[in-house]
Amino acid sequence: MRRLAFVVLSVALIGAVGVSEGVAGQRATGKALIVALDQSDVKTLDPGRQFEYAAQFIDLNCYDTLLASKSGSELTTYVPALATEWSVSKDGKEYTFKLRKNVKFASGNPFTAEDVRFTLMRLKNMKGNPAWLMDPLKEIQVVDSHAVKMVLTEPFGDWLALLTGPNSGILDAKLAKEHGASDSATADKDDKAEEWLNQNSAGSGPFVLKGWLRSNAIKLERNPNYWREGPKVARVEIRDVPSPATQKLQVENGDVDIALNVTPDLIAGMRGNKNVKIITGQSLDNMYLGLTTSAQIHPELAKKEVRQAIRHAIDYDGILALTNKQAVRGPVVYSVGLLGLSQADADRLNPKQDLTKAKELLAKAGVPNGFKFPLRYGTGPSPVGITYDSVVQKIQADLKRVGIAVELVPEEFGVMMTKYRAKQEAAVVSYNTPDFIGPSSWVGQMVLHTWAPRLHYDSPAAKELANKANSEIDQKKRVTLYQDLIKLLLDEGPYVMLVQGKVQVVTRANIEGYQYFPIGHARLLPVVKN
Amino acid sequence: MGRYIARRLVLMVVAALGVTLISFFVSRAVPTDPVVSNLGQIASQRPEIVKAFREKWGLDRPFHEQYLAFVRNLARGDLGTSINTRRPVATDLAHFMPATIELATAAIVFALAFGLPLGIFAAIRRDGPVDHLARLVSLIGVSIPIFWLATVSLVLFYATLQWTVGPGRLGPQMDAPTFVTGFYTIDSVLDGDPEAFWSALAHLVLPGLVLASSIMGLVTRVTRSSMLEVLSQDYMRTARAKGLREVRVVARHALRNALIPTVTILGLAYGGLLSGAVMTETIFAWPGLGRYAFQSVITNDFPGIMGVTFVIGIMYVVVNLVVDLLYAWLDPRIHYA
Amino acid sequence: MTNTHNLRKTTVAEVSESEWRRVWGRLSRNPMAMGGLLLVLWWVLIALLAPWIAPYDPIGQNVMNRLAPPSPEHWLGVDGLGRDILSRVIYGGRVSLPVAAAVVILAAIFGTLYGGLAGFLGEWPDEVGMRLVDMVLAFPALILAMAIAAALGPSIRNSMLAMLLVWWPPYARLARGQVLALKASDFVAAARSLGLSERRILLRHVLPNAMAPSLVLMAMDFGNAIIITAALSFLGLGAVPPTPEWGAMVAEGRELMQQWWISTFPGLAILTVAIACNFIGDGLRDAMDPRLRLR
User: Fold this and answer.
1) CB–CB of A495/A332 below 8 Å?
2) pLDDT band at B173, cuts 50/70/90?
3) For chain C, how far is it from start to end, CA to CA, in angstroms?
4) How close A214 comes to chain C (CA, Å)?
5) Which of residues 249-278 of A touch C (CB under 8 A)?
6) How far, in Å, CA of A478 to CA of C236, rounded?
7) What is the pLDDT of residues B132-142, one digit of tens each?
8) What is the chain B residue with the closest CA to A250?
9) Largest Cα–Cα distance in chain C?
10) Do residues A400 and B23 make contact, with C-beta atoms less than 8 angstroms apart?
């Protein structure tokens, strides 16, 4: 009897292996587009609440905004989407939008101005993670069924940029309200639509959300009522694959069509493989080194010459080598590709490694023999494709050459963030990803709020420049102002810029039309699977 | 016997509560503010957003109140809502637990399928080549770091040799079967979907074998040593003297008693598998309990942590109870009062 | 009186000593166990002599030559920061081996004392004590370790602490079982009848004999401890970079499948040490098995 059991088990085992070989033979040949994406940070897909990478991807494809960036390389040129034309008042506080007629949501409900009003007020009133995006908004008026007027509290140069983000995707108000959505002043308590919106979309975009199995897959289907020519693929399945190496194997084997998280080192090993294509896009994500300017926390780092010295001591090329040269670098934490900072500008303004100058600056600051400081950073991957781990070890080695001893303090990322926000750190290595694609996002964090207070950087001159540039409507004037600000930051600021990653996406050779976009990965509308 | 089970069940609940007490202190110690892992950089600076978040999750109440609220809800069968996934912890567990249990069961099946016969033959042909092979295999099995084996086997068998399917629970084109038990193998049968069934089975092979490697060694060794012990007993000599064929002798008399220590080891191993498959689950993209537990810990998802540790504690105790009952069934000399 | 006292001492002591010598005799005739012992000693030697035998500085970076495969200059290849893997593997032992040893020894000492005491005292201290052991055993060990490391921050010291907290219960259980068996044995009855105090009996007679199975467990646990230390570093909760530690090195290579040497060699280091320890433990178990004595 026992022997029989043993025989049965062996047969089952051999059978299973045989089956898996057979199943392995069936590759992804169906008409659905299979995408591999790390979804471990996703908490919700509700456009009014989400603020995570993978969720942005879904909302970018299921919802339309009023206007959109022309392409991944022309981010600040806008083209009409749900709005056909717009104008700004002279004082910069009033924006009027004419809306597109004869557009239907995926549900069949007609798109009107009320949907715009509802969406933005809900975003603001739910006080969720992205609610602050609507801070400049004072009120929205429905002028008629296809026109809205937005009144801001004060002029803001990036208001249009805010409206292009996936969080500003317009909801089907009627459908959403049926499922508990609310835009009331107490929407944070009244709105009950989150769970429904996690499994369904209420938008007008090219795709419709058909379901989300956590840690497993998100499914999208083509929107039959799309107001433009619809997507070429009928279904999209976005599988949760947290390991980049696994994604590489899957795309090489043909089990997935598009892999979004493959790291630069893995990609280097894929060059020459005829079955895959590597698509490179410039991301706006940064990794930077932040140094405190407070003498109480660290007297040496508080001296601006010391910070300048550190900027000159780091081997930037070496750090870029860690990314297999798949990265660029701006002078401060302001991304290349934004208004006022082209690659040529960056090459001009970037500090260069110069050990002699670094030592001179240290001597001038009164610490010719160096000093030491603790450097805190988070364990795990960063958004720029290489780990913090490798970069900080490089920094430690570089600074040692000018006599500065860096003590590495790794911590679990959440823990590191908590301490960083508590404003007690001498030095951190952290990241930045765009909240929206407008220069004020970076400048604001560098100078006005977020990082500046954590590093005790409080400079009236910088703040004045920043505010002026942020509220300036004339784009040309903004360019000059931002460049002045960058120069000021290079002189006295607390930031040492390390890496601005290029993003590399791997697709099968039979996939066409994939174009990288800095927020939300990509629009899948033009993608074709041959 | 009934009274014994009842008493053990009561102790089980007590033990599980004790486990939650430990988790309570542990999650108290983790200095991650849930606000950090849930709100973006700018959102966490806006007081009204932070306030709305804290109120929503009851984080504005003192810690002991949160714990008491947890226990009170527990009595009602409510495990709270996870801050990470925004849905009831019970739902999270209902989805992630079966995935891990399915994997653990596959591992046990493989371990038994290889380890049991190996151990038996090693004992029968003691000091022969099979015995030495068994010893070598089992010692190597318990010495391999699982995270390393998982990575290497995936590259070797999936990427290079293409002998097995890839990571995940199902093939890339397939829909998950309708959720009844959460076990893809069972649910796909209930759905009447043979393709999903075979795919689910195929996806269990490699991660199951990887996990099995560590316990297979134990199974072999323990089976062998207890078989040896039993084979040398008096009643065995009597059986042989009675003239029965040796194989029947082994099967009927020896194995039953020899299985007792094996059952213990398996019981302990099951518990270890259930709680510790973090690395295997990450490398194989397996949406299970280990990964969920890890995420909860590092983001200080208090309800998540409490729910997971409570449930794992209970599972452990249940497995122990089952093991003890199996003891009694296997060895009629053992009685529980 | 003095004479009898000496006699007592000698009798008990002699029994233990000759017993140990017999165990060693059997162990030394077991080729796998001796092989394991040699392998462990070899690793210890390598770790001790690291500064003299490692060809390169284990934390010396050479970013321009990163991810180079094994070659005559770098026998085991080079990692993502251009560091020589052979040197890092050699130095890695200096972290993993002492940590594992410390955890096992401390856990064994604490666990044995705890369990021995519980068994010896019996009744409610035993009940309560063993319930606590059950509770700690019921707690998912890895999760506890992760939580502690997350709370205190990644470091070797904290991962040691985390491991200690979950490592001692098996020793407690084992010691308690042994003590209970011994308590009822003739051996202890004899000591009692000679008038020795309870404490004396416990410390000089019961505990040393209770430790025998613990030693087997310790030998095999050592291999396990190396693996768990590596696992914690693999998860980012152990050694602080740039310190070379085998588990952390495997983690670095995890997402770099093309550069198989980064994960493979440190993995082999862990594997060989663990195998060696298990061989020793296995041999020790056989050597101490009373039944085998007859063959």
Assistant:
1) yes
2) low
3) 42
4) 21
5) 249, 263, 265-266, 268-269
6) 44
7) 888 888 888 87
8) B166
9) 81
10) no
Q: Name the DSSP class of C176.
A: H
Structural contact between residues A452 and A443, judged by C-beta atoms closer than 8 angstroms: no
CB of C286 within 8 Å of any CB in chain B?
Answer: no
Q: Which residue in B42, B176, B247 is closest to A213 by CB distance?
A: B176
pLDDT digits (tens, 9 = 90+) for A178-221: 999 998 888 888 888 988 999 999 999 999 999 998 777 899 99
- Residues of B within 8 A of C35 (CB-CB) are none
Q: Which of B184, B204, B205 shows the shortest CA–CA distance to B195?
A: B184
Closest CA to A394 of A377, A411, A414, A369: A377
The pLDDT tens digits of the residues spanning C120-158 come to: 777 777 877 887 887 777 666 777 777 776 667 678 888
Q: List all residues 6 or more positions away from A203 whose beta carbon is below 8 Å from its beta carbon.
A: A47, A59, A62, A63, A64, A105, A106, A169, A170, A171, A172
End-to-end CA distance of chain B, in Å? 6
Give the one of A243, A265, A415 whose C-beta lies nearest to C80's C-beta. Answer: A265
- Degrees (nearest 5) of the Cα angle A414, A420, A425? 135
Neighbours of chain A (3+ CB pairs under 8 A): B, C
Mean pLDDT to the nearest integer, A443-456: 89
Among all chains, which residue has been given the structure tokens 């964090």?
A445
Ramachandran assignment for C197, one of left (phi > 0), alpha (psi -120 to 50 degrees), beta (any other): beta
| C-beta neighbour count of C159 within 10 angstroms | 28
Contact, B236 vs B230, CB < 8 A? yes
**Which of C153, C240, C255 is the closest to A243 by Cβ?**
C255
Task: For CA atoms A393, A399, A403, A408, give the dihedral sign.
Answer: negative
Residue pLDDT, tens place only, C21-54: 777 777 778 888 888 899 999 999 999 998 888 8
Q: Is residue B105 within 8 angstroms of chain A, CB to CB? A: no
Q: C231 with C223: CB under 8 angstroms?
A: no
Task: List C residues 93-152 in contact with B (Cβ-Cβ < 8 A).
Answer: 131, 134-144, 146-148, 150-152
Establish if B156 touches chain C: CB-CB under 8 angstroms: no
The residues that bridge with A291 in the sheet, in sequence order, are A427
Residue A101: its pLDDT value, please?
92
**Residue where the block lists tokens 């919106």:** A197
Place of tokens 């194995």: B255
Tokens standing for A21? 């070989």
With a cut of 80, say whether residue B129 has pLDDT above it. yes
* Nearest alpha-carbon partner for A217 in C69, B207, B95: B95
Contact yes or no for A256 and B172 at CB 8 A: yes
Tokens 């050459």 identify what position? Answer: A401
Higher pLDDT, B68 or A404: A404
Distance from CA of B53 to the nearest CA of A (A): 7
Stretch 204-243 of chain A: residues touching chain B, C-beta under 8 Å:
213-217, 237, 239-243
Contact state of B159 with A418 under an 8 Å Cβ cutoff:
no
Residues in chain B with CB shorter than 8 Å from the CB of C260 are: 155
> What residues in A contact B171, CB-CB < 8 Å?
23, 26, 255
C-alpha distances in angstroms, A519 versus A69, A167, A337, A512? Answer: 11, 11, 14, 20
**Half-sphere exposure at residue A285, Cβ-oriented, CA atoms within 13 angstroms:** 22
Chains B, C: CB contacts within 8 A come to 132
Check residue C131 and give its pLDDT. Answer: 77
pLDDT in tens, B76-86: 877 778 887 78
Question: Could you give the CA distance from residue A267 to residue A286 in angstroms, rounded to a whole number?
Answer: 20
Of B103, C175, B51, residue with least CA distance to A189 = B51
What's the rounded Cα separation, in Å, for the pair A464 and A401? 37
Cβ density class A355-390: b for 16+ within 10 Å, e for less: eebbbebbeebebeebbebebbbbbebbbbbbbbbb
